[in-house]
UniProtKB/TrEMBL annotation:
<protein>
    <recommendedName>
        <fullName>Ubiquitin-like domain-containing protein</fullName>
    </recommendedName>
</protein>
<feature type="domain" description="Ubiquitin-like">
    <location>
        <begin position="6"/>
        <end position="94"/>
    </location>
</feature>
<dbReference type="InterPro" id="IPR029071">
    <property type="entry name" value="Ubiquitin-like_domsf"/>
</dbReference>
<dbReference type="InterPro" id="IPR000626">
    <property type="entry name" value="Ubiquitin-like_dom"/>
</dbReference>
<dbReference type="Pfam" id="PF00240">
    <property type="entry name" value="ubiquitin"/>
</dbReference>
Length: 96
């Protein structure tokens, strides 16, 4: 029998929904950094042919109305198992 994972739901770039396995321990789930979660996201979405070129620097994650900073943890943002996080692409460019 396999391990039971605490998961976060991710809304993808074209409306796809993914269940991302984060950790088997609630304590470790809470300590998960956004940077580590981005790595899990990329690993999961790169299974699709259209997402093979996307890296962690290319995405932004949003929970509620807050953009998630890589150095912070799930606990910092009060992210609990089964929370929904939105993924958006970082667009190149700048001010004119």
């Amino acid at each position: 029998m396999g391990d039971i994972y605490y998961q976060v739901l991710l809304l993808g770039l074209a409306g796809q929904q993914y269940a991302i396995d984060v950790d088997t321990s609630l304590e470790n789930f809470r300590k998960t950094t956004i940077s580590k979660f981005k790595e899990l996201v990329i690993k999961r979405i790169q299974k699709e042919a259209t997402a093979k070129h996307i890296g962690t620097a290319d995405i932004r994650l949003v929970f509620g109305s807050k953009q998630l900073e890589e150095k912070e943890t799930f606990d910092y943002y009060s992210i609990i198992p089964k929370s929904t996080i939105l993924m958006v692409l970082r667009l190149p460019g700048g001010w004119c």
